[in-house]
């Protein structure tokens, strides 16, 4: 049985820059177990700023 309490969620954000005025333009996510084996990959989402 998988111990879900030890799973890790990884989130990668692509930004337009590093300052407070910059925004997120892409988000990706991944779930691994405590041994860093990939359990699930989330969608990669491109953010369209209006």
Automatic annotation (TrEMBL):
SUPFAM superfamilies: Ribonuclease H-like. Residues 9-40 form the Exonuclease domain. Pfam families: RNase_T (PF00929). Transmembrane segments: none annotated. GO terms for molecular function: nucleic acid binding. This is Exonuclease domain-containing protein.
């Amino acid at each position: 049985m998988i111990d879900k309490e030890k799973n890790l969620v990884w989130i990668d954000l692509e930004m337009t820059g590093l300052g407070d005025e910059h925004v997120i333009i892409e988000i990706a996510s991944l779930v691994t177990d405590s041994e860093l084996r990939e359990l699930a990959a989330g969608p990669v989402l491109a953010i369209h700023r209006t």
